[in-house]
Amino acid sequence: MKNNLEQKKTLEEKIKKFNPSGSGAIYDGIFGLPFEVEESKIVLVPVPWEVTVSYGEGTAHGPKAILNASKQVDLYDPINPNGWKEGIAMKEIPLNILKKNKEVRKKTLKYFKKYEEGKIDKKLQIEINKECFSVKNYVKEITEKLINEDKIVGIIGGDHSVPLGYLESLANKYESFGILHIDAHADLRDAYEGLEYSHASIFFNALKIKNITKLVQIGVRDFCEEEFNLIQKEKNRISLFTDYEIKKAIFEGKTLKEKYSEIISCLPNDVYVSFDIDGLIPYLSPNTGTPVIGGFTVEELVFLFEEILSSGRKIIGFDLSEVSQGKGDWDGNVGARLVYKLCLFALKSQEK
Question: Tens of pLDDT along 98-111?
Answer without folding.
Answer: 999 999 999 999 99
